[in-house]
Design brief:
This protein has about 200 residues and is mainly α. It has two domains: about 100 residues, Orthogonal Bundle (Cytochrome Bc1 Complex, Chain D, domain 2), CATH 1.10.760.10; about 90 residues, Orthogonal Bundle (Cytochrome Bc1 Complex, Chain D, domain 2). It is built from ten helices and four strands. The strands form two sheets. Strands 1-2 form a two-stranded antiparallel ribbon. Strands 3-4 form a two-stranded antiparallel sheet. Helix 3 crosses helix 5. It is globular.
Length: about 200
C-alpha cells in the first residue's frame, strides 16, 4: 500500500510485517545519535522518554519528518543535557531516516514498569474505547495500524504529548483533532494510566 507522508514529498511502500521481521542486525551509524535517550534496544527506562522499539517503520519515519518540519516540540528538557531533536533529524537524509525507522521497528517493544491508578485506568478504558480505539487498536498495542504504540509508554510522556496535541504544539492528523481537542485534564490522566496498565497486561500474557 502506497502512503504519503503529510510533510515533504516522500513516498514509501509500507511493508510493515516484512520490515519488522527483517530489521537491522547491527544498528546503522545514524542510530548512535538516538541511543543516549532511547537506548540501543529502543526500550525506555526513563519516565518521560518514549520507547521506539516495535513501532511500525511508517510511523517512526513519519515522526522523523514531523520533527524535521518543526511540527512538534524540538527541545528535550527532561535530560541532563538539552537536545534539539529537530536539528538532529534535519541532518539526516532520506536513506538514514529509513534505516533508523527499520532498525528500531525490528526491536522488541517492552512496556515500562510503572505504577498506575486502577480506578483512573478504568476511566481511561472508557475514553479510549470512545475516542482512540479506532486508530490505536488493541488498546494501543498494535504496531501495524501505523498510529504508534501507546500501551506501555511512560505516563508522564503520554500526558505531556496529549497536552501538546491539544495546545497545537504537536502536529496531529485532522481525524485525531476532534478526539483530543475536547479532552479535559482528568481524561488525559485517565488515558495515560489506562495505557500504562495495558502495557503491563501485555507483558504478563
Amino acid at each position: 500500500m502506497l502512503k504519503r507522508y503529510p510533510f515533504g514529498n516522500t513516498f514509501v511502500v509500507t511493508l510493515a510485517v516484512l520490515l519488522a521481521s527483517a530489521g537491522f542486525a547491527e544498528p546503522p551509524p545514524s542510530a548512535q545519535r538516538c541511543f543516549g535517550c532511547h537506548s540501543e534496544s529502543g526500550v525506555t527506562d526513563h519516565p518521560e522518554i518514549p520507547s521506539l522499539a516495535g513501532a511500525s517503520p511508517f510511523y517512526l519515519e513519519n515522526q522523523l519528518n514531523v520533527f524535521e518540519a518543526g511540527a512538534r516540540p524540538c527541545r528535550v528538557e527532561t535530560l541532563e543535557e538539552e537536545i534539539d531533536k529537530c536539528a538532529l533529524v534535519s541532518s539526516l537524509n532520506e536513506a538514514q531516516k529509513s534505516a533508523l525507522a527499520e532498525y528500531f521497528s525490528g526491536k522488541t517493544f517492552g512496556a515500562l514498569e510503572q505504577e498506575f491508578d486502577p480506578a483512573l485506568a478504568d476511566q481511561g478504558a472508557v475514553v479510549h474505547e470512545a475516542r482512540c480505539e479506532r486508530c490505536h487498536s488493541d488498546s494501543g498495542r498494535e504496531p501495524l495500524d501505523d498510529a504508534g504504540l501507546l500501551a506501555g509508554q511512560p505516563i508522564a510522556y503520554l500526558t505531556r504529548q496529549l497536552v501538546y496535541f491539544i495546545d497545537g504544539r504537536r502536529w496531529q492528523p485532522k481525524s485525531m483533532a476532534p478526539q483530543t481537542g475536547s479532552l479535559d485534564a482528568r481524561e488525559i490522566d485517565a488515558l495515560a494510566h489506562f495505557y500504562a496498565r495495558a502495557g503491563l497486561e501485555a507483558r504478563a500474557d
